[in-house]
Design goal:
globular, Porin, mainly beta, about 150 residues, about 5% helix
């Protein structure tokens, strides 16, 4: 058996607009969370800023689990555009999730927020992003988000 190791890639912060409710659907409650331009990406191999016109299309299932499906891009400090699709799950005890939804600052250790970012990078200095699996842990705040991304080795 080979246990994979993790290599830290970056920390990202982003500002969010108010949720746009879609409403109750057959598979749960849906909403759109617009992601604003200007968030930062900082890590040992990559630095840059998030571009705007992005969103997280969320579904909260009947079991209380929120399924995130975000599509956004970043512009590196050296001008390269990288597309990211980040899908995953967020859930926790009902009282913790109620505080999170109310906009309270909640310690991210109190809930589960994990995603799997997929990168589309052009040929060049960041094409290594196209050749690995990545995992992410996150923290949600009233109008922002923080993500920590690791490459699975």
């Amino acid at each position: 058996m080979i246990k994979p190791d993790l290599e830290f890639v970056y920390e990202a912060t982003g500002q969010l607009e108010a949720p746009i409710p879609i409403g109750a659907t057959a598979d749960g409650v849906r909403r759109i969370i617009p992601i604003l331009a200007g968030g930062s990406v900082e890590g040992p191999k990559i630095r840059g800023a998030l571009l705007g016109n992005a969103a997280d299309w969320q579904l909260t299932r009947p079991d209380g689990v929120t399924v995130a499906d975000a599509m956004y891009a970043l512009r590196t400090d050296d001008g390269v555009i990288i597309q990211i699709r980040n899908r995953g799950l967020r859930h926790g005890p009902p009282d913790v999730m109620k505080r999170l939804v109310a906009g309270e600052t909640v310690d991210p250790a109190e809930y589960y927020f994990r995603t799997v970012p997929e990168f589309i990078a052009p040929a060049g200095p960041y094409d290594w992003l196209n050749r690995s699996i990545f995992i992410c842990s996150g923290a949600r705040y009233a109008s922002s988000i923080r993500l920590w991304v690791w490459r699975v080795l």
